[in-house]
């Protein structure tokens, strides 16, 4: 149940990013749901491999290259889907930053399921 709620909240975060950045467009809530799913899959499958391959560059830039990777993955998801459009590399980077902020804030509202004694 928590996974479905996180998916819905990530779709809402994506709609908020599209509302704030004119170069990112989401056609509908259904498109936002599919885009949130694709972003989750790209982050789960492709991100660890890219982090490993770009580790030297990431260390040289003191971690700032991670913004580039996140922006590229956001842009990749936008190029794979019909109803989700990312206008370029820099909108992808700024969109990925905003998406992670909104997603973190919204997911922090969910209860963790752990009870304190």
Compact description:
Helices cover 73% and strands 5% of the residues.
Describe the protein in words.
The chain has a two-stranded antiparallel sheet. With 117 residues, it is mainly α. The two termini are 24 Å apart. The chain is 73% helix and 5% strand. The mean pLDDT is 91. The longest helix has 25 residues, at 29-53. The chain is built from five helices and two strands; from the N terminus they run αβαααβα. It is globular and about 45 Å long.
SSE inventory with pairings:
Elements: H1 2-20, E1 24-26, H2 29-53, H3 55-60, H4 65-80, E2 84-86, H5 89-107
Antiparallel strand pairs: 1-2
Helix pairs in contact: 1-2, 1-5, 2-4, 4-5
Instruction: Write down the overall geometry.
Output: globular
Strand content: 5-15%
Kindly state the percentage of residues in helix.
over 70%
Please count the helical segments. 5
- Taking Cα atoms only, what radius of gyration do you get, to the nearest Å? 15 Å
Average pLDDT taken over every residue? 91
Structural class: mainly alpha
- The overall strand count is 2
Taking the sheet with the most strands, its summary is: 2 strands, antiparallel
Unreliable residue runs: none
Distance between the termini: 24 Å
Looking across the biggest beta sheet, what order are the strands in? 1-2
Question: Order of SSEs, N→C?
Answer: HEHHHEH
